[in-house]
Design a protein that fits this description.
Blueprint lengths: L1 H6 L2 H11 L7 E4 L3 E5 L4 E3 L1 E4 L6 E7 L19 E3 L9 E3 L8 E9 L5 E3 L4 E6 L1 E4 L3 E3 L4 E7 L9 E5 L2 E2 L9 E4 L8 E7 L9 E17 L4 E2 L4 E10 L3 E6 L2 E5 L2 E4 L9 E8 L2 E4 L3 E2 L2 E13 L4 E2 L4 E10 L3 E6 L2 E5 L2 E4 L8 E9 L2 E4 L3 E3 L1 E2 L3 H13 L1 H22 L8 E2 L6 E2 L7 H15 L1
Length: 466
């Protein structure tokens, strides 16, 4: 009886062990990878095989996210059913594909199957740990032109499949940079290399977020533009604009000739005048260097101003001399010059010349300066012309009125004044007594202011009257 009592419980225990496979190698699930790192928006294949004792018939196979006895089939979840595809069978293969991965798909996944035996169920542990990652570009915030820079395409975990990396700049693929290395090396960086960089894996639709590569450099292409363009008239408002290609943005200074006149990208002049006519240029400077623009000239149009007349030679003018009148005028464009004697037009051009001048030319002269923007007259100048008959006419008149002695003295005094004026006008000339065959009068130079000289002069004129 004792033996029967001891052996009776052993039969149910052996039966349970065989049914549930707790200690039997006939039950099991084998996964190709216990951990899978997959890219966001991609598809992942979780491969596995399963075994069970002979004599059992598989009734149901499915994947689940938990280890509960009554864990539901993933295909019963709305968020999984359109993306989950079972690739296995009901014999040994239990592989599935899960597509369009999101961060919410990160989980532990298990394969489960049941047989025709009520207690013949199996849950494959430890399962597959799925991690969903994205890509990030790692690069320095800024780099100076001429330096080398290395960009790295990184993920939060090591991707299970070794893939080919593709690089993009400003959303355009850099086809020459397709390789298995997740780094992009830019040697001797140029300013054209600046832009938005991203990376992707060949065969996948997911592209990493953009990272901006900032390439700094000294000012280049510095130039000045004038607004409004075209002709500038005195009184207008004018704006000078300095353009500069630089990174970081440059500070701008303005120069008129070599003198500093202002700062900022825009230099404005309101009510411009001829005083603003000059060469202007701007200087662009940042931490990497500086550069000047080419100079631009403000060509300001304005009506004539500062109109005046000069006489050459200066001093007293004697009949027979040649005289030149010159008209000076400040204007832009250059003005046309007209000459007037009194109110009568007498000629044009900057120079008005009179050869062998006579008393008929005596009078007031002025010039008029005119261009498309206005006109202006000069002040009048007077031509006083001295006749060469000064001596004889005065003496004859004096004798006829007051007698020889008194008239001679008076005439001599008048002749002295005439001769002195002419001597002052021709101070550089040294002449002796000159006889003019066309006149009845003699001209004497180098007269000394003595009584005897005056008497001699009077005697000469008396002889001429006899």
């Amino acid at each position: 009886m004792l033996m029967l009592v001891r052996m009776a419980p052993r039969l149910p225990l052996i039966f349970l062990l065989m049914i549930h496979g707790v200690s039997s190698a006939d039950w099991g699930v084998s996964y190709s990878h216990s951990h899978i790192c997959a890219l966001k928006d991609s598809s992942v294949i979780m491969s596995c095989t399963y075994t069970y004792p002979a004599g059992h018939q598989i009734k149901k196979v499915f994947w689940t996210k938990n280890t509960d006895k009554e864990s539901p089939d993933l295909s019963e979840y709305p968020e999984y059913s359109p993306r989950l595809q079972y690739l296995g069978d009901k014999q040994q293969n239990c592989t599935i594909r899960l597509s369009h991965l999101t961060q919410k798909d990160e989980h532990m996944y298990y394969f489960r199957f049941t047989t025709d035996n009520v207690k013949g169920k199996w849950l494959g542990e430890p399962g597959v740990n799925l991690t969903v990652t994205d890509l990030q570009v790692e690069s320095p915030e800024r780099v100076t032109e001429g330096d080398s820079v290395r960009l790295t395409c990184k993920s939060s975990c090591t991707l299970t499949d070794r893939a080919t990396f593709i690089w993009y700049r400003n959303s355009q693929p850099l086809t020459e940079r397709r390789d298995t290395n997740n780094q992009l090396l830019l040697q001797s960086v140029r300013r054209e290399d600046a832009g938005r960089y991203s990376c992707a894996l060949h065969g996948h639709t997911y592209i990493s977020p953009d990272v901006h590569l900032n390439v700094t450099y000294a000012p280049k292409s510095v130039s000045v533009s004038i607004s409004p363009s075209g002709e500038i008239v005195e009184g207008d408002s004018v704006t000078l604009i300095c353009s500069s290609d630089s990174n970081p943005p440059a500070e701008i200074s303005w120069f008129k000739g070599g003198t500093f006149v202002g700062s900022g990208r825009i230099f404005s002049i309101s009510k411009i005048s001829s005083d603003h006519s000059r060469e202007y240029k701007c200087k662009s400077i940042n931490e990497h260097g500086e550069k000047y623009s080419d100079a631009v000239t403000l060509n300001i149009m304005y009506p004539p101003k500062s109109v005046s007349v000069s006489i050459s030679p200066s001093g007293e003018i004697v009949e027979g001399d040649s005289v030149t009148l010159s008209c000076s005028s400040d204007s832009n464009p250059p003005a046309e010059i007209s000459w007037f004697k009194g109110g009568t037009f007498v000629g044009s051009g900057r120079i008005y010349s009179i050869s062998k001048i006579s008393s008929d030319h005596s009078g007031e002269y002025k010039c008029k300066s005119i261009n498309e923007h206005g006109e202006k007259f000069s002040d009048a100048v007077t031509l006083n012309i001295m006749s060469v008959r000064c001596f004889s006419s005065v003496v004859v008149a004096a004798v006829a009125v007051g007698g020889v002695l008194f008239g001679g003295a008076s005439g001599a005094f008048v002749m002295y004044i005439c001769l002195t004026k002419r001597t002052n006008r021709r101070s550089t000339m040294k002449e002796s007594v000159i006889s003019d065959p066309n006149e009845d009068t003699y001209t004497a130079l180098e007269i000394k202011s003595t009584t005897s000289d005056l008497y001699d002069t009077l005697t000469i004129n008396r002889k001429m009257l006899q």
